[in-house]
Every structure is written in structure tokens, then in C-alpha cells.
Amino acid sequence: MLADIELTGLVLPLDLGTYGEGDVVPDAHYLDLTLGLDPALVLVERDAMDAVFDYDPLIRTIEAIARDGHYETQEYLLTRIARACARYPQITRFDARAYKGPVLAGSGRLGVRLQLDRAELDRL
Length: 124
Prior knowledge:
CATH topology: GTP Cyclohydrolase I, domain 2
Number of strands: 6
Oligomer: single chain
Number of domains: 1
Strand content: 25-35%
Radius of gyration: 16 Å
CATH class: Alpha Beta
Strand order of the largest sheet: 1-3-5-6
């Protein structure tokens, strides 16, 4: 049995990349995040916050990471988000995608995806 929480299409308040004259500058930067959890945190016997994974503090941390100055790469941003998720022992798997758009004449999205299991999160 597997359980996940998913966050999709989150627009990040991000200053990312360096662009020259004539470069296409993205309108937005996005995050999709899927976190594996112990199924006991999703298949619950009672409707109470102490029975589930409270993702609100993690969302606030991700927002703070995004606002934490200029980033050159999506890879470093994802690394910082993965490290933040690694602090939560309830998270058993990490699958995240950071992407931006448009990338060419008003179309397309370009991103980086990172997938880690709990052992890899522990190594962070």
C-alpha cells in the first residue's frame, strides 16, 4: 500500500536565472511535489490533524526557500527543497519537478525533476 500527498502547479515567488538581451524570460516558475507517506497517515480512523501529516509548515518553508534571494539554477532550488523535506521522517519518498515557462516565443515549459527514496533523503 502506498500513500502520497501531491502539490501541483504551485507558482513560486522566485528570482531564478540570468537572461540577456533577446532571451525569452519566463513568466513564472512552478513546482510540482509528490511526497510518499506512511499509509497510516492517510488511511485514518478519525478526522483530526494529529492523525495526518501537516504539510502547511513544509509549504511555508518552500515559500521561504523560494524567496531566499537569487538562484542561478533550478537544480539548486530542488536540492534545497529536498533537504527541507528530508527533515520530516514521515516522508518516505520525494518526487519534485521545478519548471518555468514560456521558454520559446510564448510556449513551452522547461524543468528539472528529482526523485529520492527515504535512504537518499537520509543522506542529505
